[in-house]
Design a protein that fits this description.
Elements lengths: L2 E13 L3 E12 L2 H20 L9 E6 L3 E5 L12 E12 L2 H14 L3 E9 L2 H29 L6 E7 L7 E3 L9 E6 L5 E6 L3 E13 L1
Antiparallel strand pairs: 1-11, 2-5, 2-6, 3-5, 4-5, 7-11, 8-11, 9-10
Length: 224
Amino acid sequence: MATEFTVRGSYSAFQRPERGTAHVTLSCEGPKPQPVYDRVVADLDAVKSSIKALHDPNQGPVTWWSTKHVRTWAQRPWNQDGKQLPLVHHASVGVEVKFRDFDALGRWVSQHVSSTQGFGLDGVVWALTENNRQDLERAVRTRAVQDAARRAQEYADALDLGPVRPVAVADAGMLGNGLHVAGGGAAPYARMAAAKDSSGGAELELSPEDIEVSAEVDARFVAG
């Protein structure tokens, strides 16, 4: 009579990121709406000009970028005595810029932090190129299946049942695909630190996290 084994195999691989996408917000506030709006638009023009100088999908430091629409709103803040203060007008716009050259990314951010008043870096998302990510996912899935087979054979060997043979292989849990990029559902963000360059200015140092790709599979084997 055959003995059945149901096991879960897993494998994780780590690779240095190949792309870094800066998420930036340009913002301004003030007592009058038009100057606030004009300030954000001027900052956006300056940022777009600097991006265009670096943008080249094939060889340049920037491979892709996008901007959102400028948002405007107003609110009446309250002071600590409970008195409502005059209207404060706000404007902001989001910008995303994908870099292949991380040194250029650091220089670009440092430039705007020091020269563009409303510039704020929300974070940097690290990633692999699409082709390399798919290759790594394929390799990780293969190793996860091999891990499942190894586990099943170890159980069979412990019982002196001889070689196992596969009956079924499925994604972990039988419902999901079992494959994910680590980081709690979002790609890893940059670790950032400001350091002084030789001229005394601030220079951004980036410490990108490795990209983790992992896979889990469930498999059923029989032996004996």
